[in-house]
Amino acid sequence: MNKPYIINTHSHANMLRETNIDEAISNAQNENIITIVPSSTAEDIFEVDKFIQKYDDVYGYVGVFPEEAKTFTDKTLNDMENIIRNNKKIIGIGEIGLDYYWDKSFKELQKEVFIKQIDFANQMNLPLNIHSRESHQDTLEILKKYNKNSTAILHCFSGSLEFAKECIKEGIYIALGGVVTFKNAVKAKEVATKIPLEYLLLETDDPYLAPVPFRGKENQPMYVKYVAQTIAELRKVTTDEVAQATTQNAERIFNFNAK
Ligand code: NI
Fold first, then answer.
1. Helix %, strand %, coil % for the chain, to 5?
2. pLDDT band at 195 (very low <50, low <70, confident <90, very high)
Protein backbone atom coordinates (compact mmCIF):
# COMPACT_ATOMS: atom_id res chain seq x y z
CA MET A 1 0.00 0.00 0.00
CA ASN A 2 1.18 3.51 -0.75
CA LYS A 3 2.16 5.72 2.09
CA PRO A 4 -0.78 8.02 2.96
CA TYR A 5 -0.37 11.70 2.27
CA ILE A 6 0.39 14.06 5.12
CA ILE A 7 -0.65 17.69 4.80
CA ASN A 8 1.68 20.10 6.54
CA THR A 9 -0.70 23.00 7.11
CA HIS A 10 1.92 25.59 8.14
CA SER A 11 5.51 25.70 6.91
CA HIS A 12 7.68 28.72 6.12
CA ALA A 13 9.66 26.64 3.63
CA ASN A 14 10.60 29.87 1.85
CA MET A 15 12.44 31.02 4.99
CA LEU A 16 14.86 28.12 5.42
CA ARG A 17 18.43 29.30 5.93
CA GLU A 18 20.65 26.33 6.74
CA THR A 19 18.75 23.86 4.58
CA ASN A 20 18.69 24.00 0.79
CA ILE A 21 15.09 24.90 -0.06
CA ASP A 22 14.82 22.81 -3.25
CA GLU A 23 16.13 19.81 -1.34
CA ALA A 24 13.75 20.38 1.57
CA ILE A 25 10.80 20.50 -0.83
CA SER A 26 11.87 17.36 -2.67
CA ASN A 27 12.43 15.58 0.68
CA ALA A 28 8.81 16.41 1.51
CA GLN A 29 7.53 15.36 -1.93
CA ASN A 30 9.35 12.02 -1.64
CA GLU A 31 7.60 11.39 1.68
CA ASN A 32 4.15 12.23 0.21
CA ILE A 33 3.99 15.43 2.21
CA ILE A 34 2.02 18.40 0.91
CA THR A 35 3.19 21.75 2.23
CA ILE A 36 1.19 24.93 2.78
CA VAL A 37 3.21 28.13 3.13
CA PRO A 38 1.81 31.21 4.91
CA SER A 39 2.87 34.79 4.34
CA SER A 40 3.61 37.31 7.07
CA THR A 41 3.79 40.85 5.74
CA ALA A 42 2.01 42.98 3.16
CA GLU A 43 5.11 42.61 0.97
CA ASP A 44 5.83 38.93 1.20
CA ILE A 45 2.38 37.92 -0.06
CA PHE A 46 4.01 38.47 -3.47
CA GLU A 47 6.97 36.30 -2.55
CA VAL A 48 4.75 33.43 -1.37
CA ASP A 49 2.67 33.76 -4.55
CA LYS A 50 5.80 33.21 -6.66
CA PHE A 51 7.38 30.63 -4.37
CA ILE A 52 4.49 28.17 -4.41
CA GLN A 53 4.24 28.27 -8.21
CA LYS A 54 7.76 26.86 -8.44
CA TYR A 55 6.92 23.51 -6.81
CA ASP A 56 4.42 20.68 -7.03
CA ASP A 57 2.60 19.79 -3.82
CA VAL A 58 3.21 23.25 -2.35
CA TYR A 59 0.28 25.60 -1.68
CA GLY A 60 0.00 28.94 0.08
CA TYR A 61 -1.89 31.40 2.25
CA VAL A 62 -1.86 35.16 1.91
CA GLY A 63 -2.21 37.25 5.04
CA VAL A 64 -0.53 39.73 7.36
CA PHE A 65 0.87 38.47 10.66
CA PRO A 66 -0.12 40.39 13.84
CA GLU A 67 3.43 41.62 14.53
CA GLU A 68 3.42 43.08 11.03
CA ALA A 69 0.02 44.77 11.38
CA LYS A 70 1.67 48.13 10.71
CA THR A 71 2.51 47.01 7.15
CA PHE A 72 -1.18 46.42 6.40
CA THR A 73 -2.76 49.20 4.32
CA ASP A 74 -5.94 49.70 2.27
CA LYS A 75 -4.05 48.39 -0.72
CA THR A 76 -3.18 45.08 0.96
CA LEU A 77 -6.60 43.48 0.52
CA ASN A 78 -6.63 44.45 -3.18
CA ASP A 79 -3.21 42.88 -3.61
CA MET A 80 -4.37 39.72 -1.86
CA GLU A 81 -7.49 39.53 -3.98
CA ASN A 82 -5.47 39.85 -7.21
CA ILE A 83 -3.12 37.11 -6.10
CA ILE A 84 -5.99 34.78 -5.14
CA ARG A 85 -7.78 35.34 -8.46
CA ASN A 86 -4.64 34.51 -10.45
CA ASN A 87 -3.14 31.72 -8.38
CA LYS A 88 -5.39 28.76 -7.63
CA LYS A 89 -2.76 27.39 -5.25
CA ILE A 90 -3.58 30.08 -2.69
CA ILE A 91 -6.02 28.16 -0.53
CA GLY A 92 -6.46 30.25 2.60
CA ILE A 93 -5.80 33.47 4.51
CA GLY A 94 -2.86 33.39 6.91
CA GLU A 95 -1.08 33.76 9.02
CA ILE A 96 -3.28 36.28 10.73
CA GLY A 97 -4.28 36.77 14.35
CA LEU A 98 -3.12 38.29 17.62
CA ASP A 99 0.18 38.17 19.47
CA TYR A 100 0.47 39.80 22.90
CA TYR A 101 3.76 38.12 23.74
CA TRP A 102 6.27 40.40 22.04
CA ASP A 103 4.58 43.73 22.04
CA LYS A 104 1.33 44.74 23.69
CA SER A 105 1.58 48.36 22.53
CA PHE A 106 -0.58 47.98 19.45
CA LYS A 107 -3.26 45.51 20.49
CA GLU A 108 -6.02 47.61 18.98
CA LEU A 109 -4.29 47.80 15.60
CA GLN A 110 -3.71 44.03 15.65
CA LYS A 111 -7.41 43.45 16.34
CA GLU A 112 -8.46 45.81 13.58
CA VAL A 113 -6.19 44.14 10.99
CA PHE A 114 -7.29 40.68 12.16
CA ILE A 115 -10.99 41.57 11.78
CA LYS A 116 -10.47 43.10 8.32
CA GLN A 117 -8.76 39.92 7.15
CA ILE A 118 -11.53 37.73 8.62
CA ASP A 119 -14.14 39.76 6.69
CA PHE A 120 -12.03 39.40 3.57
CA ALA A 121 -11.68 35.60 4.01
CA ASN A 122 -15.46 35.41 4.46
CA GLN A 123 -16.01 37.26 1.18
CA MET A 124 -13.51 35.05 -0.63
CA ASN A 125 -14.90 31.96 1.09
CA LEU A 126 -11.44 30.81 2.20
CA PRO A 127 -10.28 29.25 5.49
CA LEU A 128 -8.24 31.10 8.11
CA ASN A 129 -4.82 30.07 9.42
CA ILE A 130 -4.52 31.81 12.77
CA HIS A 131 -1.58 32.71 14.98
CA SER A 132 -2.55 33.31 18.60
CA ARG A 133 0.00 33.84 21.33
CA GLU A 134 -1.01 34.91 24.83
CA SER A 135 -4.21 36.18 23.26
CA HIS A 136 -6.47 33.13 23.41
CA GLN A 137 -9.66 34.69 24.77
CA ASP A 138 -9.52 37.74 22.48
CA THR A 139 -8.88 35.50 19.46
CA LEU A 140 -11.87 33.30 20.24
CA GLU A 141 -14.15 36.26 20.96
CA ILE A 142 -13.24 37.95 17.69
CA LEU A 143 -13.83 34.73 15.75
CA LYS A 144 -17.20 34.21 17.40
CA LYS A 145 -18.25 37.76 16.67
CA TYR A 146 -16.85 38.37 13.18
CA ASN A 147 -16.24 35.08 11.42
CA LYS A 148 -19.34 34.13 9.44
CA ASN A 149 -18.38 31.36 7.06
CA SER A 150 -14.63 30.61 7.02
CA THR A 151 -13.22 27.52 8.68
CA ALA A 152 -10.68 28.63 11.27
CA ILE A 153 -7.47 26.78 12.17
CA LEU A 154 -5.48 27.67 15.28
CA HIS A 155 -1.92 27.11 14.14
CA CYS A 156 0.78 25.95 16.57
CA PHE A 157 -1.91 25.56 19.19
CA SER A 158 -0.54 26.51 22.61
CA GLY A 159 -3.68 26.51 24.76
CA SER A 160 -5.02 24.06 27.31
CA LEU A 161 -7.24 21.05 26.58
CA GLU A 162 -10.13 23.01 28.03
CA PHE A 163 -9.54 25.87 25.59
CA ALA A 164 -9.14 23.41 22.70
CA LYS A 165 -12.56 21.98 23.55
CA GLU A 166 -14.06 25.47 23.68
CA CYS A 167 -12.65 26.12 20.19
CA ILE A 168 -13.87 22.81 18.78
CA LYS A 169 -17.36 23.64 20.00
CA GLU A 170 -17.14 26.63 17.64
CA GLY A 171 -15.98 24.41 14.75
CA ILE A 172 -12.38 25.61 15.02
CA TYR A 173 -9.58 23.18 14.10
CA ILE A 174 -6.45 22.59 16.17
CA ALA A 175 -3.07 22.34 14.39
CA LEU A 176 -0.15 20.82 16.29
CA GLY A 177 3.54 20.95 15.42
CA GLY A 178 6.95 20.03 16.81
CA VAL A 179 6.19 21.18 20.36
CA VAL A 180 4.08 18.06 20.89
CA THR A 181 7.29 15.98 20.64
CA PHE A 182 9.03 17.93 23.44
CA LYS A 183 9.35 15.96 26.64
CA ASN A 184 8.06 18.75 28.87
CA ALA A 185 5.15 19.82 26.62
CA VAL A 186 2.49 18.51 28.98
CA LYS A 187 -0.35 20.70 27.67
CA ALA A 188 0.32 20.00 23.98
CA LYS A 189 0.53 16.26 24.64
CA GLU A 190 -2.76 16.32 26.51
CA VAL A 191 -4.44 18.19 23.65
CA ALA A 192 -2.95 15.77 21.10
CA THR A 193 -4.22 12.78 23.06
CA LYS A 194 -7.71 13.92 23.92
CA ILE A 195 -9.22 16.07 21.17
CA PRO A 196 -11.26 14.28 18.49
CA LEU A 197 -9.12 13.34 15.46
CA GLU A 198 -11.77 15.04 13.30
CA TYR A 199 -10.49 18.42 14.54
CA LEU A 200 -6.76 17.79 14.38
CA LEU A 201 -4.28 19.06 11.78
CA LEU A 202 -0.51 18.71 11.44
CA GLU A 203 2.18 21.31 10.77
CA THR A 204 5.83 22.18 11.37
CA ASP A 205 6.06 26.01 11.47
CA ASP A 206 9.56 25.48 10.08
CA PRO A 207 12.21 26.83 10.17
CA TYR A 208 11.26 27.13 13.88
CA LEU A 209 10.38 24.53 16.52
CA ALA A 210 11.95 21.40 15.02
CA PRO A 211 10.51 18.22 16.53
CA VAL A 212 12.52 15.63 18.42
CA PRO A 213 14.97 14.15 17.27
CA PHE A 214 15.96 17.44 15.59
CA ARG A 215 15.01 19.79 18.43
CA GLY A 216 17.23 22.89 18.39
CA LYS A 217 18.22 22.41 14.73
CA GLU A 218 16.58 24.04 11.73
CA ASN A 219 13.15 22.55 11.11
CA GLN A 220 11.92 21.58 7.60
CA PRO A 221 8.59 20.51 6.01
CA MET A 222 9.24 16.73 5.99
CA TYR A 223 9.70 16.69 9.78
CA VAL A 224 5.92 16.83 10.04
CA LYS A 225 6.14 13.03 9.95
CA TYR A 226 7.69 13.08 13.44
CA VAL A 227 4.74 15.13 14.65
CA ALA A 228 2.35 12.53 13.19
CA GLN A 229 4.39 9.74 14.76
CA THR A 230 4.36 11.29 18.24
CA ILE A 231 0.63 11.96 18.10
CA ALA A 232 0.06 8.36 16.99
CA GLU A 233 2.10 7.05 19.94
CA LEU A 234 0.20 9.28 22.37
CA ARG A 235 -3.16 8.13 21.00
CA LYS A 236 -2.07 4.49 20.67
CA VAL A 237 -2.97 4.32 16.98
CA THR A 238 -0.79 3.94 13.88
CA THR A 239 0.97 6.86 12.21
CA ASP A 240 -0.98 6.05 9.03
CA GLU A 241 -4.25 6.52 10.90
CA VAL A 242 -3.17 9.97 12.09
CA ALA A 243 -1.97 10.82 8.58
CA GLN A 244 -5.20 9.68 6.96
CA ALA A 245 -7.50 11.44 9.43
CA THR A 246 -5.63 14.74 9.37
CA THR A 247 -5.33 14.66 5.58
CA GLN A 248 -9.07 14.10 5.27
CA ASN A 249 -9.65 17.07 7.57
CA ALA A 250 -7.35 19.27 5.49
CA GLU A 251 -8.92 18.13 2.21
CA ARG A 252 -12.33 19.05 3.58
CA ILE A 253 -11.17 22.46 4.82
CA PHE A 254 -9.14 23.43 1.75
CA ASN A 255 -11.45 21.75 -0.70
CA PHE A 256 -8.72 19.93 -2.56
CA ASN A 257 -7.58 16.36 -3.18
CA ALA A 258 -4.19 15.27 -1.94
CA LYS A 259 -4.16 12.76 -4.86
NI1 NI B 1 4.32 30.69 11.27
1. 50, 15, 35
2. very high
Q: Name the domain count of the chain.
A: 1
Instruction: Tell whether 77 is covered by a domain.
Output: yes
CATH of the domain at 49: 3.20.20.140
**Residue 259, in any domain of the structure:** no
Model pLDDT, residue 258:
77
239 CA distance to ligand 1 middle (Å): 24
Q: What is the pLDDT of residues 76-113, one digit of tens each?
A: 999 999 999 999 999 999 999 999 987 777 899 999 99
Residue 32, in any domain of the structure:
yes
| Domain that includes residue 41, residue range | 6-254
Residue 228 lies in a domain: yes
What's the average model confidence in pLDDT over 210-214?
96
Report CA(206)–ligand 1 centroid distance (Å): 7
Q: Which residues are paired to 6 by β-bridges?
A: 33
Q: Residue 38 C-alpha to ligand 1 middle, in angstroms?
A: 7
Q: Given this model, what pLDDT does residue 112 score?
A: 97
